[in-house]
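Per your request, structure below.
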């Protein structure tokens, strides 16, 4: 059985293509990964978390970015666009177009059906190679569910919360969010339907 050849790109080729691309793409292990559009629920969660974090962290000199700031991962062999990224020291950028953040402290990805396996697997593995990163959070856009990974030396400590009244501690940036704040105005598909229909 013949298999289709997969085109591999160097990081330099990816950066050159991305400079003039109409749509954003991520890059990992020689592959360019097209980014898909987001659901209203996904967009609401990103806006809620980004807004809350910016309001709380900006007075302390931290920076919060949503969607459009690229992060270098995997020792320079990968580039990702996290849903939300925060840095509480002077932001360091690689001089690319667009600029690429080198020192994130916190990365948050909002899960959707099309991104969940990548966000949990290859993407998280690439993020773990970023020395400055100390916390990775996965927020489900389809149900109330937040997972948190905190770096502890060589290990990542996992915790999860599904209680809407719970609080999410973000130790990497020194603040907390309630799950009610994270999911404010989010209407999950089927939430208004009864069990029969």
């Amino acid at each position: 059985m013949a298999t289709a050849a997969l085109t591999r790109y160097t990081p330099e080729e990816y950066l050159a293509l991305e400079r003039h691309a109409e749509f954003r793409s991520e890059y990992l292990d020689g592959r360019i990964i097209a980014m898909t559009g987001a659901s209203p629920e996904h967009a609401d969660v990103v806006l809620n978390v980004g807004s809350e974090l910016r309001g709380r962290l900006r007075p302390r000199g931290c920076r919060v970015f949503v969607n459009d700031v690229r992060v270098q991962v995997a020792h320079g062999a990968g580039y990702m666009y996290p849903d939300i990224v925060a840095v509480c020291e002077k932001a360091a950028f690689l001089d690319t177009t667009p600029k690429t953040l080198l020192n994130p402290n916190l990365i948050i990805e909002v899960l959707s059906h099309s991104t969940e396996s990548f966000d949990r697997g290859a993407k998280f593995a690439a993020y773990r190679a970023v020395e400055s990163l100390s916390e990775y959070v996965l927020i489900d856009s389809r149900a109330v569910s937040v997972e948190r990974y905190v770096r502890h030396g060589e290990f990542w400590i996992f915790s999860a919360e599904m209680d809407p009244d719970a609080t999410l501690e973000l130790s990497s940036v020194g603040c907390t969010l309630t799950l009610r704040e994270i999911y404010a105005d989010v209407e999950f598909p089927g939430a208004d339907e009864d069990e029969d229909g």
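Confidence is low (pLDDT under 50) at residues 1-5, 193-197.

Regards,
D.
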